């Protein structure tokens, strides 16, 4: 899609144009569908996530920043929805049965590679208590509550750059101390 046409459509969308929304939907649907499907490998889940992504675009159309990449914003929304879907699956009886099956059948290569979500949560709680208070607070607000850096900066009365710095340091520490849970860390954070 041509940059000028896209920017015109985005400006119209910000003003509430359903026609502009439809044009953007048509222009980005295939790209977004391919991106989501490459991560989910499920047509049903992909269709749902793509639909939810565009619903979020419509709801949050006033937040569109013409100076930033719309495609990146769209992909970020979809990525967050995919992560939410994965998190939901961790809390289903079917997934718990699958973990029991892996354990019973010794399908896991090593004990360290088995998914032990309860241990992961306990370890994360312990590591968070070892973080400096501001880092822990920023981590919880950004990564666990899903607030944006701007929202966290406003809430804590600090700059956005300070939010990014605290979050970066917190993530570095968490990754170092929880390296055996790298798979779960990549899913959730």
UniProtKB/TrEMBL annotation:
<dbReference type="InterPro" id="IPR039425">
    <property type="entry name" value="RNA_pol_sigma-70-like"/>
</dbReference>
<dbReference type="Pfam" id="PF04542">
    <property type="entry name" value="Sigma70_r2"/>
</dbReference>
<protein>
    <submittedName>
        <fullName>RNA polymerase sigma-70 factor, expansion family 1</fullName>
    </submittedName>
</protein>
<comment type="similarity">
    <text>Belongs to the sigma-70 factor family. ECF subfamily.</text>
</comment>
<dbReference type="GO" id="GO:0003677">
    <property type="term" value="F:DNA binding"/>
</dbReference>
<keyword id="KW-0805">Transcription regulation</keyword>
<dbReference type="InterPro" id="IPR036388">
    <property type="entry name" value="WH-like_DNA-bd_sf"/>
</dbReference>
<dbReference type="Pfam" id="PF08281">
    <property type="entry name" value="Sigma70_r4_2"/>
</dbReference>
<feature type="domain" description="RNA polymerase sigma factor 70 region 4 type 2">
    <location>
        <begin position="130"/>
        <end position="173"/>
    </location>
</feature>
<keyword id="KW-0804">Transcription</keyword>
<dbReference type="InterPro" id="IPR013324">
    <property type="entry name" value="RNA_pol_sigma_r3/r4-like"/>
</dbReference>
<dbReference type="GO" id="GO:0006352">
    <property type="term" value="P:DNA-templated transcription initiation"/>
</dbReference>
<dbReference type="InterPro" id="IPR007627">
    <property type="entry name" value="RNA_pol_sigma70_r2"/>
</dbReference>
<dbReference type="InterPro" id="IPR014284">
    <property type="entry name" value="RNA_pol_sigma-70_dom"/>
</dbReference>
<feature type="domain" description="RNA polymerase sigma-70 region 2">
    <location>
        <begin position="24"/>
        <end position="89"/>
    </location>
</feature>
<dbReference type="InterPro" id="IPR013249">
    <property type="entry name" value="RNA_pol_sigma70_r4_t2"/>
</dbReference>
<dbReference type="GO" id="GO:0016987">
    <property type="term" value="F:sigma factor activity"/>
</dbReference>
<keyword id="KW-0731">Sigma factor</keyword>
<dbReference type="InterPro" id="IPR013325">
    <property type="entry name" value="RNA_pol_sigma_r2"/>
</dbReference>
């Amino acid at each position: 899609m041509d940059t000028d046409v896209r920017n015109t459509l985005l400006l119209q969308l910000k003003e509430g144009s359903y026609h502009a929304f439809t044009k953007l939907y048509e222009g980005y649907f295939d790209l977004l569908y391919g991106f989501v499907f490459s991560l989910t490998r499920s047509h049903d889940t992909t269709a749902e996530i793509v639909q939810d992504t565009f619903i979020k675009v419509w709801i949050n159309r006033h937040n569109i920043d013409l100076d930033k990449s719309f495609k990146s914003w769209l992909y970020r929304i979809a990525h967050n929805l995919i992560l939410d879907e994965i998190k939901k699956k961790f809390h289903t009886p079917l997934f718990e049965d699958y973990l029991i099956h892996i354990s019973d059948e010794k399908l896991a290569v090593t004990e360290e590679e088995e998914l032990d979500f309860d241990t992961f949560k306990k370890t994360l709680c312990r590591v968070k208590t070892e973080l400096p208070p501001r880092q822990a607070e920023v981590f919880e607000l950004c990564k666990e509550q899903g607030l944006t850096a701007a929202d966290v900066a406003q809430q804590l009365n600090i700059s956005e750059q300070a939010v990014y710095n605290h979050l970066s340091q917190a993530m570095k520490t968490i990754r170092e101390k929880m390296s055996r849970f790298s798979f779960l860390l990549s899913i959730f954070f």
